[in-house]
Specification:
Elements: H1 7-61, H2 73-105, H3 113-138
Length: 139
């Protein structure tokens, strides 16, 4: 005959499950922090691109000599925007794969706010790239 589990055995099992859940939640939070770091880096690169474009544009508008004849702020901004967009796409792929692995072993995993923010940053980068290209073809 098998013995029925006692209250102390139930408490030990609950304690182990609680520790596992806490470890999984820490892992999920680490994935979120990593994705938010990528978002922050992407935002910084976009801001540098905007700043470079404005610096070169204001220098040209004020009649000062260009710093480089063949490489202007428009090209630098274009490169930085593309880098930020590619970086966000790659980080989103990595984040989604990590979260899918986590969800297989941890049912308590909820949706990722960092993913939503990443998609918004990706849209911002694409919008800025589109505006830069549109302005390039008009002028």
């Amino acid at each position: 005959m098998e013995k029925a589990p006692t209250e102390s055995q139930d408490a030990i099992q609950d304690s182990k499950k609680g520790k596992k859940d806490l470890q999984m939640e820490r892992t999920r939070a680490a994935f979120e922090r990593l994705q938010l770091a990528w978002v922050r880096t992407s935002l910084t690169i976009l801001a540098i691109g905007i700043g470079a474009y404005e610096f070169f544009y204001n220098r040209l508008e004020s009649g000062k000599k260009l710093l480089f004849e063949e490489f202007t702020g428009r090209e630098l901004a274009l490169i930085l925007y593309v880098v930020a967009i590619v970086m966000m796409i790659l980080s989103l792929i990595q984040h989604r794969q990590s979260m899918e692995k986590l969800k297989k072993s941890y049912d308590g995993s909820r949706y990722s706010i960092a993913t939503i923010l990443s998609y918004l940053m990706l849209l911002l980068g694409i919008f800025l790239l589109g505006m830069l290209l549109w302005k390039s073809f008009i002028s």
